[in-house]
Amino acid sequence: MFPQPDMPQSWRAETKPHKFCPGCGHGIVLKCLGQAIDELGLQGRTVFGCDIGCSLLSWDFFNLDSVQTHHGRTTPVMTGIKRARPELICVAYMGDGGGYSIGLQHLISAAARDEKITVVLANNTLYAMTGGQLAPTTLPGQKTETTPYGRDPEATGRPLLGPEMVAAVAGEGAYVARGSIANVRQLKGFLKKALENQMAGAGFSFVEALSACPTNWRMNAKETWRFIEEEMQGYFRTGEIKVPGAVRKEAEDGGHNS
Ligand SMILES: Cc1ncc(C[n+]2csc(CCOP(=O)(O)OP(=O)(O)O)c2C)c(N)n1
Ligand code: SF4
Fold first, then answer.
1. How many domains is the chain partitioned into structurally?
2. Is the pLDDT of residue 37 over 90?
3. With bands split at pLDDT 50, 70 and 90, how would you rate the model's confidence at 251?
4. Tell me, which GO biological process terms does this entry list (predicted)?
5. Which of 50, 70, 119, 130, when mutated, tests ligand 1's pocket best, judged by the most ligand atoms within 8 Å of its CB?
């Protein structure tokens, strides 16, 4: 007998196998998200929004009310749903291109307004769906379709530290973390805490997941995991960046102006 696939209850089995490339990180992030939704018993009241980019392939992924939005606009769409129906749990899912370039103004404004939604962003260091162009997260020296000699920070800037940026503008009730598909237990834990933060109505919640795009990276499985664990995790540090109620160091020390 074939082993049965271990799918979260909140997944839609009839839309599997999914449409991502073999080895893609999106499926791993979405499995952690599905397990987090299952374990918190949220399937009946969660709305899922996905962006344009490879994340849109998740439009039929879950047994949840789902909406697919214009590129970079998933955050305001989910904000609107949450404001209209505060009892729902609203999750916006996007890539680093959608969240950190075309949708950056939406992400940062939602964080500054402390919208009570959860944003989950898969960082695979490039624009995957359109063929692997430079993204705000492309690492120094990394070759992409538009940086064939490797990213030069002098010419194109340094990789954006999204969670650190969000944490800097979000309110005291916000939850912000960065996980990795190389540590699914930790990633699922961060996603659960983000959802719990929304359940408590505490503030904005944001989880960046370091993800993989072996197709555009042009890497085999071994090279893919090495790139995530050494290159990506070396630059983008995983962990919790902002936890509700945490007393800021400068406040303890008497503040900037003392
Ligand atoms: C308004 C708008 N601008 C540009 C595009 C073209 N476009 C489609 S997907 C994409 C990049 C997606 O990259 P990312 O958000 O990082 O997601 P990934 O595909 O890597 O998961 C772009 C620029 C679009 N569809 N709509
Ligand atoms: S192109 Fe990359 S991000 Fe898109 S489905 Fe394939 S592996 Fe995943």
1. 1
2. yes
3. very low
4. cellular respiration
5. 130
- What is the number of the ligand 1 atom nearest to the C-alpha of 94? 15
Let me know how many helices (H) and strands (E) the chain has, helices first: 11, 9
For position 211, which CATH number holds? Answer: 3.40.50.970
Q: Is the pLDDT of residue 103 over 50?
A: yes
Whole-number Å distance, alpha carbon 53 to ligand 1 midpoint, is 4
Q: H-type helices in the chain, by residue range?
A: 26-39, 74-84, 96-97, 104-112, 153-156, 162-169, 184-199, 214-217, 221-226, 233-235, 249-252
Ligand 2 closest atom vs CA 19: 5
* Domain assignment present for 8: no
Q: Name the residue with the closest Cα to ligand 2, atom 6.
A: 21
- Per the domain annotation, does 148 fall within a domain? yes
218 alpha carbon, closest ligand: 2
pTM of the model: 0.95
For residue 134, being part of any structural domain is answered with: yes
The tens digit of pLDDT for each residue in 87-101 reads: 999 999 999 999 999
140 belongs to a structural domain? yes
Say what the alpha-carbon torsion angle 6, 54, 132, 185 is, to the nearest 10 degrees: -40
